[in-house]
Amino acid sequence: MLELLTNTKIHFQLPIQELVEHTLRRKEGVLNDTGALVVFTGEFTGRSPADKFIVKDELTANAVDWNKFNNSIAREHFLLLKKDLLNYLDQQKEVWVRDAYACSNPAYRLNIRIVNENPWCNLFCANMFIAPAAGEPDQFEQGWLIIHAPGFKADPLRHGTRRANFTIISFSNKTILIGGTGYTGEIKKGIFAVLNFILPYQRNVLSMHCSANEGAKGDTALFFGLSGTGKTTLSSDPSRKLIGDDEHGWNDRGIFNFEGGCYAKVINLSSKDEPDIFQAIRSGALVENTTFTNGTNTIDFKSKAISENTRVSYPLDFIKNAKKTFVSRPPENIFFLTCDAYGVFPPISKLSIEQAAYYFINGYTAKIAGTEEGIKEPQLTFSACFGAPFLPLHPEFYARLFKEKLAKHRPNVWLVNTGWTGGSYGVGSRINIAYTRAMISAAINGRLDDVNYHPHPIFRIMVPQDCPGVPEELLNPWNTWADKRAYYATAEMVAGKFRENYEEAFQKQY
Description:
Helix 1 runs antiparallel to helix 3 and helix 8 packs antiparallel against helix 9. The protein is built from twelve helices and 30 strands. The protein has 510 residues and is of the alpha/beta class. Helices cover 26% and strands 25% of the residues. The longest helix is centred in the C-terminal third of the chain and has 22 residues.
C-alpha cells in the first residue's frame, strides 16, 4: 500500500517523543504542565455511529446484522473512496505510518498498519495498540489497514456516505477508512468492530466491551458498561492488577486484552477519586478536548467548554499495577455497570445465570453527555451486550456465547448502578463513587457471600441487606426516594421498557 504514496514524505514507526515534537512543530497541540500533549479533535469530539458503514458483499451480506449501527455500503463506493483518500494523502507534505497489533493472545493476534494524516493521531495508535517487539517490524506482515485522514471530506453523492465524515469497514479487503473526523475513538472502535466479527463468527471466542483486572490470587473480574459508566475508573484499583480498560476476549482458557493502552474519560478527574488515571497524564499521554485554567497550562478537568467527552490515551504500563501479559484466567466476578438515569435500580444486586443473560442482551444504561454526537444529558438506552454500536453480528450470537461461558465457569454476576439515587436525573443525585468502590470490593473479596438478600419487588434481582462501608438505606433504592409511589411507578415503567426492548429487538433469530 505504501508504494501508492509516492509524493508525500512517510514518517514510519516514529517513537512517541518524535510524534509529540512533530505535533508541536505543526502547531496541532501544546504541552500541559505535566508534559502530556493536549489536542483539539475538531468538529467531532465523539463517535458518530450513524456514519459508520460496512461493505456489503459475499462475506457480510448474510452474516452482518444490518441495522442503524451497521449501515451497508456498496463495494464500488468503498473502492472509489479508498482511491480518493489515498490520493488526498499523497498530496500532503507528510504522513505518519505505524505497524502494530491487536489482541495480546498470540493465537488471535491481528496485524495492523495505520496511515495517519496527523502525528498526534499516530501517537494515539502507538498508545492504544500493541507494539511489535524489537526487530519485528522488518518481518511484519500487514493484515489489516487503517487509513485515517480528518481533513478529507467525502462527497455523499460520489462516495455513497451520509455526510462528509465516515468510518467504513471492508472485511473482504481487511481495510478501515476513516475521514472527516479527528476523533481518535473511531480508530480503536473500528478495530473493535472487526474483532467482534472475526472472533465470535470465525473462532468461537466471545469478544466483550469490558474492562478487566486481577487480584493477588489470580482471580479475574470483568466490568461491562458503555462509555462513561465507570469501566476504566472502577477497574483501576490499586489493590489489583489491571488487564485492560475496554476490550477483551474470552476463550476456553481465560481472558485476554485486545489493546495495549487505555482511553479514559477525564471530565471532573481528580487525584483523590481516580489517582491512577490522574498520574497517567504525563509525557507520552495524549489528552483530547480539554481547556486550561486561565493563564496556565494546567488542565481544567471540570471544564466542558469543548466537550464533556474529554479523554486521555496512554500505554497500559503508565498504570503502575498493570499486568504485563494482559491475560488472565476465566472470571470469578462479572459486573454490569449500569448508569441508571431513572434512579430505580439498587447500587448493587446479584443475578442468576438467566437474569445475567437477560440483562446482558438488553444492556440497559444511559448514554453520557459527549460520548456521541448530540448527547447533552443522560439518555435512557438499551445497548445490546453493552456495546451495540460495535457489534456486526446479531446480539443473540454474543449472548449465546456469553451464557455458555457462564454455565461452564459459574462466576458471580452483579448489576451495579453507577447512575442516580434518590430520584431520576434532575431530582436525585449520582451515586458516590466511594460507595460503588466499596460494594465492588466487598463482592470481589467475598464479603457479600454470607449476607442476607431479598428480591427486588419489581425486577426480582437479589439485593444485599448490608454491605461494609455503605449506608444501609442506600442499598434499597426506594428508601432514598421521598415519594415512594413515584419510585414504584417509575420502576414499573422501566421494567416495561425492558420487556418491550427484549420482545421487539431480540426475539428474532439470527
